[in-house]
Every structure is written in structure tokens, then in C-alpha cells.
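In this supplementary section we document a worked example of the pipeline. Step one takes a protein sequence of length 551 as its only input; no multiple sequence alignment statistics are reported here. Step two produces a three-dimensional model, which step three serialises into C-alpha cells for compact storage. The input and output of this example are shown verbatim.
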Amino acid sequence: MPRHARTLRRKESTAPFQARPHATTLGTSRISCPGIELPSGLNATGLNRLDERVRIKFTSREANLRRLGRTRFPLLNPHMMNSLLDQLSRRAFLGRQACGIGGLALASMLAEDAPRAQASDAAAAILPRVRAKRVLCLFQHGGPSQVDLFDPKPALQKYHGMPYPGGDLEVHFDKQKGNVLGSPYKFVKQGQCGMELSELLPHLGSIADDVTLIRSMTTESVDHEAALRLIHTGRFLAGMPVWGSWVLYALGSINRDIPAYVVLGDPGGLPVDGEKNWSSAWLPAAYQGVPLRSGRSPVLNLVPPDGRGGDMAARRRQLDFLQVLNRQHLERHPENTELSARIENFELAARMQTAVKSILDISQETKATQEMYGLNRDESREYGTRCLIARRLLEGGARFVQLYMAGQPWDTHSKNAETLKGLCARTDQPCAALVKDLKQRGLLDDTIILWGGEFGRQPISQGPDGRDHNRHAFSMWMAGGGFKRGYVHGSTDEFGYKSVEKVVNVHDLHATLLECLGLDHRRLTLPHDGRDASLTDAEVTKARPVPELLA
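The serialised model returned by step three reads:
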């Protein structure tokens, strides 16, 4: 043992205990022992008469640190402190330390409500300016045709039925290449901004002055699955976290009583690529999307079966016992994030029984609101119901909500014009209603609404009346959340085949969306496979936010 440590221990062991009474304040006498207050009138002799009901000991590590002189602050002689604390009654201790215990409880509650990333690398990604705090993604699987809906091209009408005069085209089904295919639908200028939109989108036209329309999007794959992975995760390869999971990882939840990341699926089935569209991959499983079913029971077993919901105390005991077993198992397997997510889901499910049941009850909405979403029309009722539930979820505190459609309905390889007409009748009114409804409730300014698919369509026909995939140009629109209003960004060539002005790729879009949420895409990272992984992988993709899109 070092000489100075032996000397210190000898001095501590022989130091006398001297308690010096101070002036009485508010019924307590302060004794010169840092951090300890004793009842009024109590002196050093009276300490020996206290009931010995609670023992508070220093750990051996703390004692060793004091002996070696490594503590930053002067501490009491250990023998004196143990003698003093051993004789404090539980009542006296709790009475004097109540504020400290309350502070610990408060800190724990605040930690639960704070963004989870504050304790992780994602805390460094927070930017000083936050435009939005929640996201609604209206994803359109299959690739909507930009030249029929958002990007008017007179050249298509001029060369309709003729060989394409613009050179070679990259097409997915090259054996079915046809001639130029003009759009059968007229384009109309909408709003004070004069945004030109298809006559199939009259309701979107009614909110044109609240929308940012990007006509110059590009992606890197002409294949559905790869393009879907790019638009959702920023990567070609499977097994990467989607951008909703990155947002949740960085910002955490707003309301602990409902899922922070909600997926509203189509009653007709899963979209192409299924659950990969909302997977957290190697991020902790708690950050994946939580699917809610369509129909009368969006959440299975949310309401107990008839006759079994009376004894809430017994059900609480059952859940508590289940949690004990799960946590014991988790202690043995701390690397199992699926298990930790399951434990969190059990706790969330208990809170959801009251909160979510109310949110999903759209009967509370007025008739006028339901009609605004198209619930009075057969074509739009189902999609409109999910849009209305999405608004209620956002209003209730969900951070990230996504709507999907079964399969890939916008993949119009045949009967392009007919299919588009039916899809627009199904989705146009509910999507526009979301913007109007959030705006009138004061929620649009801090909510990002994003509408779009994984790529666009060709200016030529596939077969007699279809359009093939096109990765070189497609359109997306967004509203709220700091985006410009009534603004058209970028342009394509005269046939709508390739983006040529103010081009925005998928990685730039991700960087811009994260910036609106107050996040730096370059610093929102997590170590994975030997390097700092991120949504945009800016070192490789050169992704950058697009300031022209932002107000």
C-alpha cells in the first residue's frame, strides 16, 4: 500500500468526532456534518438514543476512494458518518430527504418522456432550428405516373402514337417498348400559385397554395424492391432501418400512451416488400413501426372479451408477473432487442387500452368532417377512414404515421389511364382533407405531410395502354412542416423522361426531411459493421438538404 494511503487511513481512524450545534432554523438544528439535518434540539449525545431502523452504508469502493484521497470533495470521516447514519430513524431520514427523493422520481419521469437519443450518439444531431415535430407519409406503392398527374407535357400529345424522338430510353420491360403515349387527361392551373395539376386531382388542386410539388425527383433503381428500399432506408440492400425508425431513434415519442411510429395498413393486404417498409433492422426493435389493422378492430385484444374485463386487479397482477419473467430473461440475454421491445409493448398495450380506443373511434367526428374525408362515398370511404384515423393519431401525440396500400396499385403496366382514374377517386379527396383538417386545427405548421411513390413512369407505352418504370424522373408533393407553400420545384425534359433542372435525388430528400425535423443527417449516426451508419450515408451519396424547398 502506498505510504500516503497508510498515513491517510491512520489519520482518519484516530480523528475525533466533534459535533458543533448551529443556530436552529425552521425546527432543525444544523450540525457541521455536510448534507445531514437532524431534528431540533438534537445534539451529539442525543444521537445515541435514536431508534436504529434504517442503515445506510458507504460502499467499499467509496471508502477506498476516500482512503486514497481521490474524491473531488471533502467527505466525512467514514467511522463518524456510519455511526451518524446508522442511528437515523427512517422517519427522520425520509422527512429530511423528501425533496431529494422527489427529485429522483422527477428525473426518472422526465427521462422517460425525453427523446431516447439524448443518451446516445443521436443527441449530437440536434439542430438549433426545428420546423416540424411529426410526420405523415402517404406512400403510393408502384410508382404514380408523373406525366399523367403532376407534370404536363404537350410534346406527348404532339407525338402521341409516334416513335419516341428523344433517343434511347432505359425501360424495365424492353421487349414491350411502344410509341409515345400522350395523357388523355387535361391539366388545369390551380390556386393563386397557378400550379398545373391533372383534372384527376381536383381536391389536391384546392390546396395547391399549401403544397410544395417536386417535379425533378430521381432514384437509382428501376426495380420495385430496390427502389422501395432506397426511398425508405436510403440503401439498395435489405436489412437497413427505415427513415421512420431513424426519426424515432433521434426524437423519441411525444405521448407514451400510444405508439410513436404507427403504420395504417390496407385491409386488402400488405404492400410489396411487406414489413420491411417499416422495419428498424439493426436499430433496437422498439423503433420499428407498429401496424394497426383496418376495420372494426385495428388492435387485436385491445378490449377484453365480454365478461372477462371486470377484475382489473387480477389482470394487473398477471401482467406484472409476466413482466417479472420477461425482465429476468432479458437480464440473461441483454443483446436481445426483440425481447426488450416486447416488454415495452406489453407496457404500452396496458396504456393503450384507454388512449388508443378513444383515438380510433371516428364516430366522435362531426358529419361534416367525415364527409370532408370522403366517408360518404364508396370509392374513398376506406382510404378516407384511415386518413381520418391518421389525423387523430397525430393529434393524440404520434410522432410518425404511414399509410400504405395493398400490393403496388400505381404500377400501371396496362390500362394506365383507367387505373389512374380509379386510384385518384380513391385517394385524392382524403389526402387533401388531411391538409385542410390539420391546417384548421393549427397542426399543419409542425407536421410534414409527404405524398409519393418509389419512382415514376415512362413517356412511351408498354403494350397498347400501359407505362413502364422510370427512375430518371418522378414527382412528389409535401405540405406543412416548414416547406414552401404554392411552390413548384425543378423540371424534366420536354417528354417528362428525365429530370434536368434542380434535380433532387432520394438522399437529398431524406436530408431535407431530417433538417425540417431539426436533425443533421450527417451526425444522426449509429456504429454498425465497423463504421458510422446513417440514413443518408453522406460520405458516399453526397446528400445535402435542398434549401429552396424550405420556407
